[in-house]
Amino acid sequence: MGCASQCAKYFLCFFNFVFFVTGGAALTVGIWLFADRNSFTNLIAKLDETDILTKTDADVIRMMSYILIIAGALTFIVSFLGYCGAMFESRCLLCVYGVLLLLVLVLECVVVGLAFGLKGDAEKGTQGFLKSTIKYYAPSADQTETVTVAWDGIMTQLHCCGVESYLDFHESTNWTSTNKVVPEACCMKEYGELKDRSCPLHPTSSNSYYQTGCYKAIVNAIEENAAIVIGVAAGLAFIEVLVIILALYLACVYWRPQHVYRCVEPSGKE
């Protein structure tokens, strides 16, 4: 086996070993969440000193566990095939691995194409989804804690309020039962405290972001980081193509004919 084949072999082994461990970790966490949600969320709360997961709805946690199990299992199996195929020089495993990665790459291209082709519908759907969730926003920690925590995080990080403006909170019956105009997450803060304590009751452009919609803020954040997103996507696609080529290249190198015919020159002797 030549130097190029050796380099390709060890690169595939290292690449797939990393994803094998990653997929195994995701699968383990998913199974743990599915089997015993409380112990996992309590452990995370102790490690990062937050209680976001402990307040998250059981249905959301269950959905997260399903996603982790499916994604982890697929990553685990595919990377296992690639690692074993390269390490044990199995042409069959490498071919299956290359075909599976090719299917993943094709599906990714289809998703990107649909995203661009259905951009208008996607924007309307996203706005509709955000407005449907904001109806469950609550002014205090209760049964809708997941929605409240998620919205507070978005508004705090992106400096926005509501989907299009603070008026969207009028859709929430939980919110309209209070005398506040905007949540505290819509207010400007200094050193973790409200810049103006009267902001929730009397929001202005100088103490809050009450007229800045979160949908517009999300779009602006994506556009500002478009180069990074495109670069990461292009990098992943390049690595996938490279790995597919290396897998098929090694499959050809490891190919051995079933029958070998030797040519013997006649010696002229009897």
Automatic annotation (TrEMBL):
Membrane topology category: Multi-pass membrane protein
| Location in or out of the cell | Membrane
UniProt keyword Manganese, yes or no: no
Indicate the principal place this protein occupies in or around the cell.
membrane
In the UniProt record, the signal sequence range is none
UniProt keyword list: Membrane, Transmembrane, Transmembrane helix
- Kindly list the residue ranges recorded as spanning the membrane: 12-35, 63-86, 93-116, 226-252
Q: Name one GO cellular component term.
A: plasma membrane
Which family, according to the similarity comment? Belongs to the tetraspanin (TM4SF) family.
The protein's name is Tetraspanin
